[in-house]
Amino acid sequence: MSRKTNTDIVNGDRRIINRKLLAGELNEKDLYGMLKKLPDVSENAEEVTVQINEK
């Protein structure tokens, strides 16, 4: 993979990231570096309660 950071990859699906890792298009060091640059948006999370109706 080129040294140019492609931040679009971290917005992708896990399957695409895994495929790129297996194909050698992306290495784990670069992936972790991109993930560390993502902002922490945990304060935007909302708690959701789900009720399951059993028959």
What features would you highlight for this structure?
35% helix, single chain, mainly alpha, 55 residues, 2 helices
Description:
By secondary structure, the chain is mainly alpha-helical. The protein has a domain at 7-39. It is built from two helices and no strands. The radius of gyration is 17 Å and the shape is flat. The model has no long low-confidence stretch (mean pLDDT 82).
> What oligomeric assembly is this protein in?
single chain
Q: Structural class, judged by helices and strands?
A: mainly alpha
The amount of helix comes to 25-40%
Low-confidence stretches: none
Hey, roughly how much beta strand do the residues contain?
under 5%
Task: Report, as a whole number of angstroms, the end-to-end distance.
Answer: 53 Å
Mean pLDDT: 82
- Cα Rg: 17 Å
| Number of continuous helical runs | 2
Shape annotation: flat
Element-by-element helix/strand order = HH
> How many strand segments?
0
User: Biggest sheet, in brief?
Assistant: none
